[in-house]
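the two lines:
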Amino acid sequence: MSASPPEPSRRALLGAGAAAAAGLALAPGMRLIELAQARSAGEPASGLVRWGMLIDANRCAAGCTACVDACSQENGLDSAIDLRQRPQWIRKIELKEDRSGREVSLPMMCQHCAEPPCVDVCPTGASFKRADGIVLVDRHSCIGCRYCIMACPYKARSFVHEPLTHQKADVPRGKGCVEGCTLCVHRIDRDKKPACVQACAETEQGAMLFGDMNDPSSEISQRLRGAASVALRADLQLDPGVRYLGV
Amino acid sequence: MSALASQRSRSLARTLRGLAVALLAGLCTMAASAGDAGSTPKPNIIIESSEHCVAPPEQMRREHPDMLRHQRDLTVHRGERGRKVSLNACVACHADRRTGSVIGSDRAFCQGCHSYAAVHIDCFDCHQASVRPTGNGLALGAAP
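prediction for all of em together
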């Protein structure tokens, strides 16, 4: 019997390659930070993932509403009710610096905070944060008190004032509940990007980038490492999952 | 006097017992004949898909609210999708092929039984109750 060491198997080589790519390998198959694997059907959302978005306001064209239109289409938000009462999950805002006259346009939606004030104030537990960082409303427990609307510093939540019909099968909505951007959770659960991000990419502006902020090899993590991004209202220390460039 | 009174009360009790037995027997006969003749109204619903899907029909009739409630929490809070128990799957399978809906009439699959049992059905205040026709069958979602 020879005592020569066995050749490294294909599996070990692949494991080492993947670990090296992650840049945090202690040994093949052992990592300092565990990375989430793609989910199969029926599997719960993983706490190892933190979904986030990076919005480059320099690339966001004033007057373009592709993201807003895509959101409305995807989630069935069409409404004929008075504009002030219409649900709004994402909106475009224009900022102007008075001194220089610099104008910037950016989309604004639920920032999916790590420390969400809407969850803190909810009296029924309807407002909650999913394991992968997505902040949602469980409409089955929402009593429509609207404390969360008052608590959110980003004005990201809406109240449904009218009876609804023709909801999308994946996006159940109803009168008397609070709602907001879900980061297109029904698409994320099927390994697709949020509708706004996809629509923005299709306009070739590519101002919105979506990904896992916990995965150091993801494009969003690399971009966040490479350039100075800001969290809006960083003074509140809510650690939002949506970051901005050029604001 | 007291002996007479007690004798009277005994005879009254006997009469009452006899009456009760007769009444019970009568009721049982009525119930049995009702069962045989089918005079109890049954919900007259259109069943598009009667095959055993998630569980046998007897179990589904009794337990579908608990199954849906359990799955609802798993889906909303934990993001578990693609399980057999799902409201969308119920609608896709059981919608009336003519109207494309599980509600809307007392013969529709969900509404038919719920109105028979006088149980208010909340699900479809928010959830989609219809499938829309496509080229090769029916797809979930609101009519465009």
